Amino acid sequence: MPVVKPFSTIAEMFDVITRHFIDSDKPAYLYKVAGVYKPLSYKELREMVELTACGLAALGLNKGDKFGIISENRIEWIIVDFAMTTTGIIDVPVYPTLTAKQVEYIFNNAGVKGTFVSNQVQLSKVEKIYDQVKTLDKVIIFTEKGITAPDYLLSLRELMELGRDFREKNPDYWVNRIREVKPEDVLTIIYTSGTTGDPKGVVLTHKNLVSNILSATQVIPMTPEDTFLSYLPFSHSFERMAGFYAAFACGGIVALAESIDTIAQNLLEVKPTIMTSVPRLFERLYNRIIKGVESGPAIRKKIFYWALDVGKKYVQASKKGKVPAWLKSQYALANKLVFSKLKERMGGRIKFFVSGGAALAKELGEFFEALGIKIVEGYGLTETSPVLTVNRLDDYKFGTVGKPIPGVEIKIAEDGEILARGPNVMQGYYNNPEATAEVIEKDGWFHTGDIGYFDEDGFLVITDRKKHIFVSSGGKNIAPQPIESLLIQSSYIDQAVVIGDGKPFLTALIVPDFEAIKDYAKQHGISFQDEKELIHRDEIYRLFEREIKRINKDLAQHEHIRNFRLLDKPFTIEDGELTPTLKVKRKVVEQKYKELIDQMYEELGV
């Protein structure tokens, strides 16, 4: 079903949806308090958002001002986001895993006037950079302040009290601000990694996000009877649009997962009907299921693989429209013995998952479909608000990212790059007209940087990335070059290639500076015959472990190198690993060392 009520801005969406459900017993959100899920009604939500919005006005914030959010997913994130979007304040969400230095760059680039922080950990980052961000004034913490809080710090509770006083003197302020927000007004600036490693601010308007919500909800059925479990960060455009705004617009209940580590428990508690996710979750579920089967009794293993085979046959027969009676009875038995139990572990009510952020392995989609769990995969970018294409429940093909959503045009350029055009395409990169001109043509076509094609049935298939920015299976955009630059700054590292596209974490292939490690070996009494033997000595491996650990401290959590291999010879032009200008041919290296790369992930359970 489409959205509950029509709207043209996110501000209007909040207004009409909360008014529609204001007297409903149905909660808007479920969130954990002292280990138990607590409901937040639409009436309570509206009151808290208004008080926060009025509090920001009391601090002197106006439409068009920029304000940060550094927080994990929590109910306060939702409240302050709606407070800003309903009054025309531009929010700048920041991943809580970023370092203080990275936050400093984003805040200076955006010119934020203040920021929300979730806790003391995030506050400490802001305290380190406060004097370096000249526009930064107020900082508002979701928890209570410490005893020695700086003058610029307020708690969210104090902000709401300011808002209460402001509202008494200006009772119509908030509703008037909602009406003043226009579709073409900037809603948010989301920073995403660029080729140079410096994040670029993607400028998205209310119209951008609203168009994507309205289009996506036409093809992905969501209703007020649905319950969503949200765990992807709201700083990520996919979760912000799909798991936050679209779910709210359709009147669904959104339950906040505590973390990715608690999803198994939260699924049982919330019993969701729909969930947005990235492939990493399905990889984890798959590994857990297979591990449980393989470690169990032989009879259980036999039953599981029999049921899986029946499920695959049933799916194929269903697609052809002819399921023989014997297969129906076998499927019913397989469902009773196996499938229903697996579904119960996911709460028992899941209708489907929506996967995005990175490529879903075809085999994973087929595996879960055979178990009776549907995964629909979509494709998009932060720059496109984000959804461009999606597989429908009744029109899908694993190994593809589906068909364009209503209002979106897709074409393939001569070099195979996927180009997109539509009302969801960003306004540009903030304060970066050169980068904007590189990706958006004068007639509106946006260059995605992905290579792909339409198959014979009109499904979009992504085959490659035009540039080397890659996406982890957790959905994080990662630029490897800055990480590689940090690695080769080590006196012991000559060359490095970071691996991680579509993977759950990063690894690295490292060519040591052989002279440096030979000197180290001599100084520490490490004997060796040749370089090949030297790189396999435990003492040398531990040396590089320490180097990697040191370098990781300067990187965001999702940029950490989790495993590595030392190579016994450098990359060369002669071996085809380097271009004439000495740039690494990433694909050649990955193919050449595929076995080593696979070993690195297998060692850590992937």
TrEMBL record:
Superkingdom of the organism of origin: Bacteria
GO cellular component: membrane
One Pfam assignment: AMP-binding
InterPro entries in UniProt: AMP-bd_C_sf (IPR045851), AMP-binding_CS (IPR020845), AMP-dep_synth/lig_dom (IPR000873), ANL_N_sf (IPR042099)
Sample GO molecular function, one term: long-chain fatty acid-CoA ligase activity
Keywords for this protein: ATP-binding, Nucleotide-binding
Record's keyword annotation contains Nucleotide-binding: yes
Keyword Iron: no
Catalytic activity field: a long-chain fatty acid + ATP + CoA = a long-chain fatty acyl-CoA + AMP + diphosphate
Residue ranges annotated for the AMP-dependent synthetase/ligase domain, each copy included: 25-430
The name this protein goes by in its record: Long-chain acyl-CoA synthetase
